[in-house]
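Technical note accompanying the year-one report. For the benefit of new consortium partners, we illustrate the data format agreed upon in the data management plan: each record pairs a sequence with a structure-token string. No post-processing was applied to the example shown here.
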Amino acid sequence: MKIKMYLTLVLSFFLMTNSVFSESRYVTERMRITLRAGPDISYKVRGLVSSGESVEMLERREKWTRVETSDGKDGWVMSRFLTTDIPKKDLLERLEKDYQRLKNISKTNNKENDSLKKENRDIKRELSKKVLELKALKEKYDKLNEGCKKYTELKKNHDKVSNQINHQQSELAKLKEEKAVLESNQLFWGFGLALGVLAVGFMIGKSSQRKRTTRLI
């Protein structure tokens, strides 16, 4: 029975000790406190812990607490100078540092924002220039397209007129050929008619000469 109680007490102490190990504390508003070799002011001072410094709790008693500092020193400090809250002075300093950091980030962001605004203005200016160029190019294209349409229409009309002229020239050539044939026929018949008239005149003359000769006899 005593062994069980002893084991229970040891286990409880072990659990309490482990819970202490996981806790952190801050030194209160007092500027510096002594870090001693034991839990009493009679022990040798191992160092000083500044206000706002975070320490790890290793062991806790009623008035004294064994801690380990951030630089690895091990010792005892008075428990009343430890707190779970960050001292207001250190908190204010942290807030001021955070504010300054955020202010610097804001300045950087403002510079980047100004740079982006300038780039945006340049892009808009270049875009406006490209839009005007595109508009002018479209107008040239429309004029060229209109000219192409007019040219196509003119070519179509030209081809039509050319076909008509070719047809008329062909008809004219035929008429010239027919005229030449007709003139040739007219010349032939005229020459033939003249020969016929001469022949008739000759025959009449002969006949008249015979009649005169007969009368004289």
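Partners are asked to follow this layout when depositing records. The longest strand covers residues 54-60.
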